[in-house]
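Troubleshooting: if your tokenizer reports a length mismatch, compare your output against this known-good record of 67 residues.
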Amino acid sequence: MKEILFVMARVNTDADRKLYEVLAQAAADLLDRPTGGYFQSIMGALNYILISELGWLGRFRNSELRN
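Known-good structure output:
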């Protein structure tokens, strides 16, 4: 189980890195532009991703899988 979580963490890190590389090239106004979607903007979606990842990190920090 622990090995699977490490693989998932690496995949997540790679996906985050690629997403941030693409968004780093985007105009600032694009990131805040209303999308009409659930999170209202790209920045809203990024905020959700950040909060979700912090939540999972907190769970893993307090789990027995940590050792």
